[in-house]
Design brief:
Number of strands: 9
Radius of gyration: 22 Å
Strand order of the largest sheet: 5-6-7-8-9
Strand content: 15-25%
Shape: globular
Distance between the termini: 53 Å
CATH class of the largest domain: Alpha Beta
Length: about 250
């Protein structure tokens, strides 16, 4: 296994597919059928060029970024500082200030129009979603703390008696904020999605629109798992519990 991983990192073999969570390796010429792709694999661009492309890709993908957040997106070493960022992408950056964050932040020029809409109050998030623990929004724990004031960790490898939030906790994204943490379990034989625990962040009030969005998200989540009945076992805030219970009941056919 170690030799295969070493050959993979050297570019001598590639991952052709996964089988029962195991990597199946093969030669590049049998994975990359396109000759142009194969040539690019065998003759990669200079490392400095790749680093510039990865840094620019991270700025574009993150939407708004501090230099300290950029390296984590593509696992770059060494980390990116403001001087390097400006030197590499001087013509591709828009400098902005974000309330609550010290120092400059940067937006890619491709997002200029969206930035102008945000500044004018014409672009507001209205979506609600349950995020994977591996979603880019929370993957960089430092960024999640600094940007969203959301301190998150995955506790499935933590002994049960030491867990704070639950076994496999999903962050709750509501509009532009991370408002809570959901630990759920699907009881497929009973058609039940059990909300084992829902902890809502301090300051997140159960306003009608927020409750409606979250209830709809919970129901879609349950339906996708073919467990259409949502049962709330524990909701830490009683006001949220009552409001969600009512919203889910009203949504039932």
């Amino acid at each position: 296994k170690r030799w295969l991983e070493a050959l993979f990192h050297l570019g001598r073999v590639m991952v052709a597919r996964r089988q029962a969570f195991q990597r199946v390796y093969d030669l590049p010429e049998r994975v990359l059928r396109d000759s142009a792709l194969l040539d690019g694999w065998r003759n990669p661009p200079p490392a400095d060029h790749v680093r510039s492309r990865f840094i620019e890709d991270a700025v574009r993908a993150l939407g708004v970024a501090r230099p300290a957040w950029l390296a984590d997106y593509h696992r770059l070493q060494p980390r990116v500082d403001e001087g390097e960022l400006r030197e590499r992408l001087a013509e591709r950056l828009l400098e902005v200030r974000v309330q609550g964050l010290e120092g400059p932040c940067f937006v890619h020029v491709d997002h200029r129009e969206a930035l102008q809409q945000v500044a004018a109050g014409g672009l507001r998030a209205t979506h609600c979603s349950l995020l994977s623990p591996f979603d880019p929004v929370v993957w960089d724990r430092r960024r999640a703390r600094e940007l969203f004031d959301f301190d998150y960790r995955l506790e499935c490898y933590v002994p049960a008696e030491k867990r704070i939030w639950g076994y496999f906790v999903l962050p709750v994204l509501l509009a532009s904020r991370l408002i809570g943490r959901l630990d759920a379990k699907a009881h497929r034989s009973d058609g039940v999605m059990e909300v084992r625990s829902l902890h809502v962040e301090a300051g997140s009030r159960p306003e009608a629109s927020s409750v409606r969005l979250l209830a709809g998200t919970l129901q879609r989540f349950a339906d996708w798992h073919q467990t259409p009945r949502v049962e709330l076992t524990e909701v830490a805030d009683r006001h949220w519990r009552q409001a969600l219970q009512a919203a889910l009941a009203n949504a039932e056919p």
